[in-house]
Amino acid sequence: MVSKEAKTVERAAGPTASDLPEAYLDLLKKCLLRFHDGAAFPYTTESGGESDQRLAYLAGKGIMPHVQADTMVSRDRLDNIQQATATVIREGVPGDFIETGVWRGGSCILMRAALTAYGDKTRKVWVADSFDGFPPPTDKYPSDPWKGQSQDIIGTMGVSLKVTFDEVKDRFDRYGLLDERVEFLTGFFANTLPNAPIEKLAILRLDGDLYQSTYEALEALYPKLSVGGYCIIDDYFYTMCSKAVDDYRREHGIDEPIEAVDWTCVQWRKTK
């Protein structure tokens, strides 16, 4: 029988070997969000004020991320990415992972970390973005409201949604996750996704905001999503994004139920 004192020492020693993948990914998510245990990490520039629980709450919900965060998504959405990666790896669903529209790369960084944490040595993570803002407006997609506006849209933190390729690449490198299993697709989706050298996908995560970016990604990549794979839509809250998703699903007879991840993100698993 293990004594009470021994159990206390065991708990104090930290996670066991079987706990390490979850502990690693949990710590990574806190770093990506820049908050821990209800408090935001202190700012290291003058662009932000003092951190407090309110900022951590807003960051955790994906409403107003920490100004230095590597991701805009909520903690629930990061947990969703982890759950999806763990499931497809455990169940052997074939295919790589991709996010279309990556901002500073946080969601893709988590995907790459999950491959290491769960011992997958074969899949790749595809990082697709123009790294130059939104595509120019076009009459082909009248649902998008950006006509006459700058492609360099300012987000909720007062910073640009346009992040350079070098900056995203550097963030992967800082986490020790930049290697040959991270593939970048640089350019507007209409030019890069249709001919991308991707055979199969197990996770298709869309974060393009607009009708055009969402529809073009579905059109090019959904046929490559394996049965059992996850289609995750980050911006379903936005009318132009949800319209693109609904139009594509209707046109292609997709009837798998849509599940809420949080207040703006949804997903479904491909069953046929």
UniProtKB/TrEMBL annotation:
Q: Which UniProt keywords apply?
A: Methyltransferase, Transferase
One Pfam entry for this protein is TylF
Single Gene Ontology MF annotation:
methyltransferase activity
Q: Which GO terms describe its biological process?
A: methylation
Top-level lineage group: Bacteria
The record's Gene3D superfamilies line, in alphabetical order, gives: Vaccinia Virus protein VP39
Return the InterPro entries for the record.
Answer: SAM-dependent_MTases_sf, TylF_MeTrfase
Which PANTHER family does the UniProt entry name for this protein?
Answer: MACROCIN O-METHYLTRANSFERASE (PTHR40036)
Kindly provide the name given to this protein in its UniProt entry: TylF/MycF family methyltransferase
